[in-house]
Design goal:
This protein is an alpha/beta fold. Helices cover 35% and strands 15% of the residues.
Length: 184
């Protein structure tokens, strides 16, 4: 049987963007990502003057993620750009990503996060954990109602990013899935 999926958001869990802007967290490195936008006219005009996006990443997180018993998958607005900018800094291989398509940033009237349905669809009944800084109880209710497998929605504080206790919770969840597969 295949390993469960670990859906990874970048901003919040891996990039603690809400930390004090003048104080990079210990163990993190800074990368600057150009902010390219849409049309050629925009790229020639305003976006040329935009400052690069500051991203803080902890290179140790890559090995910690690889040690978990999950198949890693990007679940971020970065989509495939995470393979270009984030994965190399963390020492991760190229990962699959969820293409959010028309759901990207689309508010739902029921208050469920716009990522939730696409993640449940992508998992297609497979167990998964989703690390993000934006889930709510409504997302857990949706996952419980619409997903055939088990799903862990693990909130990460965007001021501090992933910590050892987060990795432990993910490891415990993967182990519990492995135990239930062996019993079932």
């Amino acid at each position: 049987m295949s390993r469960p999926l670990l859906f990874l958001d970048v901003d919040g869990p891996l990039n603690p963007y809400a930390a004090k802007p003048e104080k990079r967290p210990a163990g993190y490195t800074t990368i600057r990502v150009p902010q390219d936008s849409g049309t050629p006219e925009e790229q020639r005009g305003l976006s040329r003057r935009r400052r690069p996006l500051r991203v803080w990443l902890n290179p140790e997180h890559g090995q910690a993620l690889l040690r978990l018993d999950f198949e890693l998958c990007w679940a971020t607005t970065w989509m495939d750009d995470a393979n270009r900018w984030i994965a190399p800094v963390l020492g991760l291989p190229e990962l699959p990503f969820v293409d959010f398509g028309d759901a990207l940033f689309q508010d739902r009237p029921d208050g469920v996060h716009w990522k939730t349905r696409p993640l449940v669809d992508y998992a297609n009944g497979r167990g998964f954990a989703w690390v993000d800084d934006e889930q709510s109880d409504l997302d857990q209710v949706y996952v419980t109602a619409h997903h055939r497998g088990r799903g862990l929605l693990h909130h990460v504080n965007p001021r501090i990013g992933l910590r050892e206790d987060d990795f432990q919770a993910l490891s415990d969840f993967a182990r519990s899935l492995d135990t239930s597969r062996a019993v079932g």
